[in-house]
Amino acid sequence: MQRRIFLAGAAVAATLLVSSCGGTGAGGAATNVQSQDPADTRIGVSLTSQDEERWITDGRAIQKGLEDLGYQVDLQYANGDIPTQQQQVDQMITRGADLLILAPLDGTALAPQLQAAVNAEIPIISYDRLIRNSPDVDLYVTFDNYKVGAEQGKALLTGLGILNKDGSEGKAKGPFNVELFGGSLDDNNATFVYDGGMSVLQKYIDNGTIVIKSGQTKLSQIATKDWSQQEAQSRMDNLITSSYSDGTTLDAVLTPNDSVARGAITALGNSGYGPKHDKATQPMPITTGQDAEIASVKLINDDVQYATVFKNTKLLAAQAVKSTQALLNGEEPELNDTTSYDNGAGAVPSYLMPIDVVFKDNIKKLLVDSDYYTTKQIKAGQL
């Protein structure tokens, strides 16, 4: 039976009928969670890795939010290893998890664990990364990843002068040499980000305003395994050697997140590109990003990276906590999208968080005034 969010009416009815044993769990299965005190309720949280700053921030925020409500929290990081994540989720279920919040390394790799959760009547929240090819997902909390890509594309065009910041046509006509980078193919978000970016850039590629000198435009060609900074640096090194060793200037790079951006920027810096105030051989290409990681915010402030998409993961974590409480109470979690995120087994009910684009001129407004970072942290490039 395909699992779906409880309808509010069904939850109320279930509560009335079986108040001693709770309401309806994921997929319509009975669950005892509703009758439990939060102190007796255990939440398993599995995140991808501590190698990226954002996942550390997510983990802390989720854990604090849940513990403030009185829940027990089993927070684990898979450290980029799929078998490790599988083992950790298995252990969470064995230890009696009442709900799971999962950010999968590979959206298709947790099938045995999902089945075990179904058998144990444990609701599942897919966090930021979508669990693929499974009907056993109760809720997906994430950002609008298609919009993330579209905003990256717009930022790139703005940096080149093709568009003005208000979206109107700019004066620059090109042609401009641009290269494209994508995210990791095992992460469903990479496809949405890529599709969003290409929805903005494709017409400029088609009319010759943008030239992809390498000819690499398909996601399968431009993907960056594990969103790795090192992988991005290596590919950019190869692109510079293969397509730009003749002295042709690279004008912009569409990079899907900040770690990939920093990898590309490192390779470009090693090849003589740099900010204008450094009197580099060639100006640093316009580069985009995602996550507003502190190291990249410093690069933006220093005129090295051009922009990043700010996804306030503290708000995402808060939404996951709010959704957890609703599910455990037999209530319908808040939704704002029920069609966009088809995981291969059907559309997963979702809550999409808002995003903002960070440029040098709005760092203070978006990141400092909101208390996300301090001016001192941005200047140092570290927390």
Automatic annotation (TrEMBL):
Keywords assigned: Signal, Sugar transport, Transport
Signal peptide: 1-25
Main location: other
Keyword Cell wall biogenesis/degradation appears in the UniProt entry: no
Protein name as annotated: Multiple sugar transport system substrate-binding protein
Keyword Transcription belongs to the record: no
Naturally occurring in which organism (per UniProt): Paeniglutamicibacter sulfureus
Record SUPFAM superfamilies: Periplasmic binding protein-like I
CDD domains registered for this protein in UniProt: PBP1_ChvE
Domain Periplasmic binding protein: from-to ranges: 43-332
Protein localization: Cell envelope
InterPro entries: Bact_Solute-Bind_Prot2, Peripla_BP_I, SBP_2_dom
